[in-house]
Design goal:
Largest interface: A-B, 35 and 37 residues
Largest sheet of chain A: none
Number of strands of chain B: 0
Helix content of chain A: over 70%
Distance between the termini of chain A: 58 Å
Shape of chain A: extended
Number of helices of chain A: 4
Radius of gyration of chain A: 20 Å
Helix content of chain B: over 70%
Oligomer: heterodimer
Radius of gyration of chain B: 21 Å
Shape of chain B: elongated
Distance between the termini of chain B: 71 Å
Chain lengths: 131, 127
């Protein structure tokens, strides 16, 4: 295997923080979190097959402050991962590769994710009246 | 005429594993998830605080069970592909990597199948 004393390439802390690298790692982290969200979604649906009591337990767990915090994180993660995923699909078609466009679409993705997260939660509170 | 052996010709051209299929399935499921997840968020907002009865009515309404099953399949397939890449990127130990990959694939299939079965149980035969 590799010998011990080889020089290392410059690591993360040497680079200036950039929107490109920041969004790239955020895409990964939101993806990881959404995988957990998938398990949560599955458990939510499965709980309903165990009857009203189990489902109501799941609902109140999701409705607790901690549950809401998780769901808020998942909402943002979903919108971010979705928008940035579309950005990736654009790159697959060879679109938007120059630096100014990459930065502009990156900022657009962030704004989209934040705005839609806020709108979704406003809609949620409007519908259920905060319950 | 090419005098090189078949092995010599493909050497250095990259892995012969199913990289293209992985890449392609990730895009396909990703594209499918755009409408499916947006539909789900819209629905989930309305299901916040819903009772068991309201929930089962929603699951059984018109296209909902089919959309839910499609969402579950695409979501776990896409998630499992993504987690695989993360593990392959960050876990150097071959044995740990294999163990994690197997665990991820099994978990995705188990949770996905259970969730699909749950949708069927909530809809088929009831109401």
């Amino acid at each position: 295997m590799a010998s011990q004393n080889r020089p290392l390439s410059p690591h993360l802390q040497i680079y200036k923080p950039q929107i490109t690298s920041f969004l790239s790692i955020t895409h990964r982290m939101t993806g990881l979190f959404l995988a957990f969200g998938a398990v949560l979604l599955a458990s939510w649906v499965i709980s309903a097959t165990y009857g009203p009591e189990a489902f109501e337990n799941a609902q109140s767990l999701l409705g607790s402050w901690f549950g809401k915090l998780i769901l808020l994180g998942l909402t943002f993660s979903l919108y971010f991962h979705l928008a940035n995923g579309i950005r990736h699909l654009g790159w697959d078609f060879g679109l938007g590769f120059d630096l100014t466009k990459v930065q502009a679409t990156g900022i657009a993705v962030l704004i989209f994710a934040v705005v839609l997260t806020v709108l979704t939660w406003f809609a949620g509170y409007a519908i259920v009246g905060g319950s | 005429m090419d005098m090189r052996t078949p092995l010599g010709r493909v050497r250095g051209l990259g892995s012969t594993n199913d990289g293209v299929k992985h890449w392609w399935m990730q895009r396909l499921t990703g594209m499918a998830l755009i409408p499916l997840t947006l539909w789900f968020v819209y629905s989930a907002v309305q299901m916040s605080g819903a009772s068991h009865a309201e929930f089962t009515v929603w699951v059984g309404t018109q296209g909902n069970p089919v959309l839910l099953i499609l969402l579950i399949i695409c979501m776990f397939h896409h998630g499992q592909l993504g987690l695989q890449v993360v593990v392959e990127d960050y876990i150097p130990s071959e044995s740990t990597k294999m163990t994690l990959l197997i665990a991820i694939k099994f978990a995705a299939i188990i949770f996905g199948t259970s969730a699909v079965f749950a949708v069927l149980r909530l809809t088929v035969g009831s109401s």
